[in-house]
Amino acid sequence: MASTSTKTSSSSSNLPHKYDVFLSFRGEDTRTNFVDHLYAGLVANGFHTFRDDEQLERGGEIASQLLDAIEESRVFIVVFSENYADSRWCLNELLAIIDTMARDVSKIVLPIFYHVNPSDVRHQRGSYATRHTSPVEDADDDEVAMIEDWKYALTEVANFSGYPVDPNTHEFQLLENIISEISSRINRGPLHVGTNLVGVDIRLNEIKKLMSIKSKDVPEDVPEDVLMVGICGLDGVGKSTMAKLIYNELCDEFKSKSFLDKVGDVSKGPHGLLDLQQQLLCDISPRGEQKISTLDQGIRVLQRKLRCEKVLLVIDGVNAKEQLEKLAGGHDWFAEGSRIFITSRDKSLLEHKVDKLYELPELNRCEALELFSWHALGRSFPNVDFYNISRHFVEYCQGLPLALKVLGNFLCNKQHNEWERELSNLDKEPNVEILDVFKVSFDGLPLTSKAIFLDIACFFKGEYKDFIIKILKSHDFDAEGGIRFLQNRCLLTISNGKVGMHNLIQKLGHKIVRDESLRDKGIRSRLWHHIDVQDVLEERMKGTKSIEGIFLDLLKLDNINLSTQAMTDMTLLRLLKIFLGSEVVSGEEDCKVSITSDFKFPSGNLCYLYWHGYPLNSLPSNFDPAKLVELNMPYSNIRKFGLGKMVSNLTAIILSHSKDLAMVSNFSSTPNLEKLILEGCTSLREIDPSIGDLERLGLLDLKECKSLGSLPDSICNLKSLKTLYLSGCSELNGLPKDLGNMTHLTELYANRTATGAPPSPIRRIREFLIRPFSGLQGERAYPSLSSLPGLSLLRELDLSDCYWWDAEIPDDFWRLYSLEKLNLSGNPITIMPASIKELSRLKVLVLGRCKRLQSLPKLPPSLQELDAHECVSLSYVVEVSLSLSLSLSL
After folding, report:
1. Which residues, other chains included, contact 531 with Cβ-Cβ below 8 Å and sequence gap of 6+?
2. Which residues on neighbouring strands pair with residue 652, listed in sequence order?
3. Comparing C-alpha atoms, which of 155, 29, 32 is closest to residue 91?
4. How far apart are CA 339 and CA 186, in angstroms?
5. Between vectors from CA 345 to CA 344 and to CA 348, what angle results, nearest 5°?
6. How far apart are CA 85 and CA 153, in angstroms?
7. Who's near 470: CB < 8 A, 6+ residues apart?
8. Residue 57's pLDDT band (boundaries 50, 70, 90)?
9. Cα–Cα distance between 782 and 774 in angstroms, integer?
10. Strand 498-500 to strand 493-495: parallel, antiparallel, or no bridges (unpaired)?
11. Burial environment of residue 421 by CB neighbours within 10 A (0 to 12, 13 to 18, 19 or more)
12. What is the enclosing helix (H) or strand (E) of 75?
């Protein structure tokens, strides 16, 4: 196969056939009656048919021309009549047919038993027991071999399903049936998939590899079982095209095959599923005269027919479970060797149905550029003048083949300045033809899923899934089920815990909201564009109860005067975020939002409140946080914080870098708090003892709280606390003596504090992670490990810059048998004890900046990395493994 970016066009694996049908018959028996009528019917129906007495010129090389005609024909109709086996000509013709069929499995043979018994033909009895099928006694070896070949050919062809003709047969109806079957078989050739396809070869190969996988619950000793493969992906990614390519690739290997196109759309009709059942029946059983009247009858008929022989079945565009139940109920419907491919945008329909699921990916950048170039410029790669702007269009489409084709075709034959104008317009008004494809998926969503979709498209793309679920479920949304539903519909993705969405699908969400009101922005449900938000909040267009969410990026505005009056009617506001759209924040940002001291939040429905640089000293007295899940106010001017009423939904309070914040109190009103972040609150002097009531608190971040002198003893009651940050709390004089009661604590960061030695004991700590005590200030700040039994399971320990001298290293230090990484950098040690070799699992040893270190003993054989940079006194190393990664800077 060609590489991923190879251009592929629609074609069959074989050359086109010159003749649709080849007629083989004994002229004296049937030329002037049955065959004549059959030939006329085939020609009348548009089939190019070979009949030897008409096609061959007199005096020509009959045998050679006959062989050519047989090779160039697709369907063979063999009319077995009474004297057929008397003719060497007919038998040689039949032998040539068998030979060409052996070389090309796509060819079809259809026997007609004209006033003869099929069993006589099959076993060479009756009129078929002739001198050409029964050798005489003195026949030579060549003649005997030829007769055996003729007999084999007769038996082979007679074994195919065919049509018997006897005196009681209505020949007119029979001819109709034969022509109908030929029509069905010929018209089921390769499907048209267009030209200039890019990137399909590697994807087709990946799907073909799945065919070697056995289906579910099938024993290994079954050689060829039924296999169902699902293909899913977002709209416009090329699922139908891939389904047609698979069908074209495999169709010649199957006598029975069917491609059911746009099943979801067809099913919407009054008799949609019934028509699909009838089509499937006609495809796999062309001579079937049975008319399906009900869906249940269709199931019974299809089960019976599909079990007869292996089939290739492609069901494209499924969007409901019922469609699969009525068309391909289960593996037991099909004969061994059958292959069923199902495409759908809904992953959940396929996951429990198919044996293997293939998610069709978007094109990579190179493939996308090539496909776009073919449609926009008629070449595989853009010329210099159009290269850069082509890349912008490709980036906009994000690898979606449909979008690349639509935009490419639209731009074809346009000038460069027209391309620039169209690119500029796309942000304001996305291409409707592209968005309409996704709109079908959106229209089929339940109401709750539509709301979740719009929230994500307008506000939460790129956020962590767990965060979104926590925020949205406070309004009785089944957020977890809704996100899973949207993911199954390929309307969003989950990667590394974050929710992603294709740019064009996001633009659909934006357009849906804008279309709620083209002129009056105040009655839209969601506002995220800074100009729209400014118009509403500054009362150019007063907000209404329609507004559910407002996100404002302050970086895009110089300043804004927020009017309480503009927000008065926003009684259904759920989401409010006023933020700086930059990950780099200096902490000295000017407040860009001006509000009066009597400002009031409009809604008790707020579940998410984020306000960077909140300008008032406190929250409004009427603030109702009843439904609030997260309150995030970094760099605020708040001085005292405490919620007077019970707020059971609140799980996170973030007031980081609020430099005027001096007190946080009344934690008993937030019993379900899980995260408290007060980093950089340099005026904070105390923590209210009620913090001990927070049974679910898992993260407490007090980094750089430089005025914090102590922690309340009640902090030791935090049984769920896993992570405690105290780094940079330079006034912190000590840690509570019962800190060891925090049974789930796994991370303690206390560097650059004034705590002295760490608390004793800290028990049941299963895994300290990175810098538990680094940088403890004071000349004798090392821990007594004998009093810290929980540390015996440490895997990683950082004791850098702890002022350790040789004599101060505890004797039991080398009993940390589980240790894998040890950082002792920046300490004034001179000799590393020989007992270091007892650390049998140690992989990384960091001794950088130990400027007094003179020698190293034999190191553990497990060691993989040694960092001794700036160890300027180091002159003696007993043994270093050749495989060790060594960093020395003397």
Report:
1. none
2. 630, 675
3. 155
4. 21
5. 80
6. 11
7. 479, 629, 630, 651
8. very low
9. 10
10. antiparallel
11. exposed
12. strand 73-80
Reading the block at residue 577, the tokens are: 């975020």
Q: Is 93 a catalytic residue?
A: yes
Joined tokens for residue 695: 């049974």
Peptide bond into 761 cis (omega under 30): yes
**In 157-207, where do the E strands start and end?**
163-165, 197-198
Average pLDDT, the chain: 83
* Residue tagged 């309340």 (tokens): 712
Tokens representing residue 883 in the block:
């495989």
Answer yes or no: pTM beyond 0.90: no
Measure the CA–CA gap between 26 and 38, rounded to whole angstroms. Answer: 14
Residue in 227, 466, 441, 211 with CA at minimum distance from that of residue 344: 441
- What does the longest C-alpha to C-alpha distance in the chain come to? 122
* Residue 803 near residue 780 (C-beta atoms within 8 A): yes
Taking residues 268-276, what's their average pLDDT? 88
| CB-based contact 762:786 (threshold 8 Å) | no
Concatenated DSSP letters of 813-828: GGG-TT--EEE-TT--
Cα–Cα distance for residue pair 549/572, rounded to 1 Å: 9
In this structure, what token pair is assigned to residue 770?
């990175």
Q: Which of 198, 187, 211, 277 is nearest to 242 (CA)?
A: 198
Residues in contact with 703: Cβ distance below 8 Å, sequence separation at least 6, in sequence order: 679, 680, 725, 726, 727, 728, 729, 749
Take residue 161 and report the two structure tokens written for it: 């399903």
Is pLDDT at 792 greater than 60 in this prediction?
no
Cα 499 to chain center, whole Å?
A: 11
* Token output for 72: 């160039």
Residue showing tokens 């935009």: 407
Give me 863's structure tokens: 């060691």
Mean pLDDT of 232-255: 90
Question: Between helices 479-488 and 447-455, what is the axis angle to 10°?
Answer: 90
Annotated catalytic residue: which of 54, 82, 93, 548? Answer: 93
